[in-house]
Amino acid sequence: MERRANSSDVAREAGVSRATVSYVLNGRSGQSISAATRDKVLAAARNLGYIPSAAARTLRSGRSTLVLMLLPPEPLGRAQAMVIDAASEYLEQHGLRLVAHRLPRSGGAVSLVHSLVPAALILITPLEDAELAALQATGIRVASLHSTLHDPLGPDLGIGALQVQYLADAGHRRIGVAVPEGAGYGWRVQVRLAAIEHACDVLGLPRPAVAHLHLDAADAAAAVARWLEGPEAVSAVCAFDDDHAFALLSGLAVHGWTAPRDLAVIGAEDIPLASLAVPPLTTVRLDAARLGKRFAQMALGETAAEELPPVSLVQRDSA
């Protein structure tokens, strides 16, 4: 295995001292280093592929100022963005900076942590056993909302269960589920479907009829036609989020159908446009800002992991 270049290699390549390399690469001011010398050091570092050690910087300063948040490899939605913003704001008040990273399905968490040497790790994506063990061995605090890190957000935060309970209380027996099409959503879709299926089992309802949708009116129209005109017609649908609920409302309109007369629709997240849907969208509200703050508090060691931020029903007209 080829040895990784270090600051001594850069100093030798540039013909300067290690102290000069440190001054240049760490951007320190107050040193009389000529532009020519600075350019030589930077060129040597580029040629050698040298990356300054985050571990060394942490050892010199006594602590890291970074908190690393690992996200699943899916498109970033409004709720996730609010979680990141709230966590970042809270950490900044305590002199820390948040780095959010979408982790590829191929992994890479351990090498990223070794590179950044964060003060704490916020986990919003599942990891393999070997990765979890390696991360825990570093001694870095791992913040998660669930006692088992294999399931860092717990049972879907209660979103799917609340959707099913509301529809069952309204008299619906045969329920559909609309989830995103695409591999990028894989983990969250699995978690949501498992939660909805479990809720149906607990309430004695048939297993839900699942449709994978693009955010497209024609795609949604085909799905609602299958649900309403199939041999086992459904009367209500749990949408993965409010965006997919909007798609379902558009799909109903293509056929001249409406919610909830022909098909009840319940969303999730309660985006600002939910109240402007036609009809206004019944949905499950997730307090994403509180969730982000909770993650930050746990990263600082302030809050235990047992209590999940609550979700709540927002009852409007679509279901």
TrEMBL record:
Top-level taxon of origin: Bacteria
Where would you find the membrane-spanning parts of this chain? none
Gene Ontology MF term list: DNA-binding transcription factor activity; transcription cis-regulatory region binding
Which keywords describe this protein according to UniProt? Answer: DNA-binding, Transcription, Transcription regulation
* InterPro entries tied to this protein: HTH_LacI, LacI/GalR-like_sensor, Lambda_DNA-bd_dom_sf, Peripla_BP_I
Q: Name one Pfam family in it.
A: LacI
Ranges for domain HTH lacI-type: 5-61
CDD domains, per database record = HTH_LacI, PBP1_LacI_sugar_binding-like
In Swiss-Prot or TrEMBL terms, this protein is called: LacI family transcriptional regulator
